[in-house]
Amino acid sequence: MRDELASIYIMHEGDEVAIIDTGTQYSLDNVLNTLNQLDIDQQQVKYVIPTHIHLDHAGGAGVMMEQFEQAQLIIHPRGARHMIDPARLVAGSIGVYGEKLFEQLYGEIKPVDEARINIAEDLDKYYLEGRELLFIDSPGHARHHFCIYDELSHGVFSGDSFGFCYPPLKNHPWGLIPTSSPVQFDPTALKNTIDRLVSYAPEQVFLTHFGVIDKPVERSIHLRQWIDDYLVLCETINPVDTESEHKLEDEMRKMIFDRISDSGLNEDELRYILDTDIKLNSQGLAIWWRSIQNG
Prior knowledge:
With 295 residues, the chain is an alpha/beta fold. It contains ten helices and eleven strands. It is globular, with a radius of gyration of 19 Å. The protein starts with 8 loop residues before the first strand and ends with a helix.
């Protein structure tokens, strides 16, 4: 879609490699080129690890598992069946984007052989040449989400559980923004997840959107404040229909743009990097709001 939108992490320890988050099938060539530049043989890839099954994180898992024939996929318990049979995942995404845009964004979503799937329960540990990867159940953005704490880097691979922060906003105090995209957003669970990740005292967080941030413990304060402010918007607007959902999107955009108005970016530049997230965030918030109103 654009540069600097989604990160794919290659963790290299000794002769073993893990790929954390996969992008889409269109990301494979980039990964192969990067492995070649790093002088890493494809046979060294031991694990492919989507943090959750949203297609910007797991859409490329099937083609990567085909490419790296010796690799094992590690997935959250709630996500495994969708990796084995992605039909419902695909149908749901086509329902949101339409077939033409879905094909443009994601291409073909290939299934993964069940025999090559490892299910990571909360606090399970996997290893790359003795380097411990601790899997942490991380609901809030989605119920099929885990994060990974890497003791060697004192870092967390956070998927979408610690928000998004694009490079032009990397140093802005309000530039780390939570993602409430459809359809399983749960604000209480997300704040609990943030607190749990912070309890490991990480020195850095590896975001999927986009890149590494430092001082995550300090930055979690504003991240939690954003979530509270989202809820105030919902209480004020009551987004129960299409018209009020559009109003929620407009008011969220205004709130975010006002808060980062001193970022040095003009409105067109802010829209370019943030509009898709704002639209998805407002949709996810509205779905959550309607769910709690309906009991």
